[in-house]
Amino acid sequence: MKSTERRKERRLGLRWPIRLSSHVIGQVETKTENLSSGGFYCILENPLAPGERIDCDVTVPGDVRGNRDGIAGTLRCQAEVLRVEALGMDPGYGVACKIVDFTFTKHLMAFKTSTQTN
Question: Could you say which of 2.40.10.220, 3.40.50.150, 1.10.290.10, 1.10.3720.10 is the CATH number of the domain covering 17-106?
Answer without folding.
Answer: 2.40.10.220
